[in-house]
């Protein structure tokens, strides 16, 4: 409606400008009157005009058309001869405004009708079924507090049927999960007994053979001494292979459950340092331990075995070299690193280093130790990786998320200041 009013005023002003322009070349009252009368006849709906002059009487010209009361649109314009006031008929403007108001009213009524219809449709098709479903679920979950309402609508009957089906599916799922759990526990127990029996059956002959070999006296025969030494070495490797295979079997069967306790890394380092010192001195390896003050929450036995396997692997790979064993804290995680300056690994070897029977250069074993280490890390819920450069050493790292205890220690952040290998 504002646009309609603005349009009408713009048209009236343009007509006033045209009327004022028609008297620019006129001289004398008669010429001015004639020019205005002629221009007014071509300027509908302008009905009349008044030219107010300072040095002459006002000049009033009327087209003879009557303007209804209250529907006059007046425009004033300055001209060289004086102020020109025009009066236009605004009847068409009022009619257009009335039509716009009527259309606006119809639009509001339509919007209101659509709103009411949509609201009722939502209540009937969405809200009521949801409320019925809520009552049905509440009655199922809380049978003593809720009352089940009977609904005759088809949608609610369908929802009730689906809920009954869901209840039946959940019941069958729970039964299936319970059966699967019992079967899994039975399989774990069966595998555990099998592993123990296999270990006993193999270990007894090996122990008897080891005792027999230990009691042999080769005398001064160098060949017999060499054969006896080879037999002892083979028995040692067979025992290591059997221990590794049994350990992998226990982890794969799910028979190993971690028991987490609060401990400090120095507890692990002291025990493993005593277990590895003999081999380190025999191979001329210098081992440094860093980060022993970090508290953590994990399985001490599994962590000790993990560190032992990683450090033993590093010692074997670094004769007459250096090995760094470090623990550092990263947020709520604890990161263990075993770094050596040995021969390193090729990229193809790094991809398969944690697979079974992957033998590393310079190792006389069967490639079982690192495979067991990966299983230990998986059981503890952590991650393990390796970075290595041929000829520049190898870094094995283990990260245990959520294993850190208490606030971070300032000493833990200073672990990077260790001697370069």
UniProtKB/TrEMBL annotation:
It catalyses: ATP + protein L-histidine = ADP + protein N-phospho-L-histidine. PROSITE patterns: HIS_KIN. One of its GO terms (biological process) is osmosensory signaling via phosphorelay pathway. Its EC number is 2.7.13.3. Gene3D superfamilies: 1.10.287.130, Histidine kinase-like ATPase, C-terminal domain (3.30.565.10). One of its GO terms (molecular function) is protein kinase activator activity. SMART domains: HATPase_c, HisKA. The keyword Kinase applies. The keyword Nucleotide-binding applies. It is an enzyme of class 2 (transferase). InterPro entries: BphY/WalK/GraS-like, HATPase_C_sf, HATPase_dom, His_kinase_dom, HisK_dim/P_dom, HisK_dim/P_sf, Sig_transdc_His_kin-like_C. Keywords: ATP-binding, Kinase, Nucleotide-binding, Phosphoprotein, Transferase, Two-component regulatory system. Pfam families: HATPase_c (PF02518). This is histidine kinase. It comes from Luteibacter rhizovicinus DSM 16549.
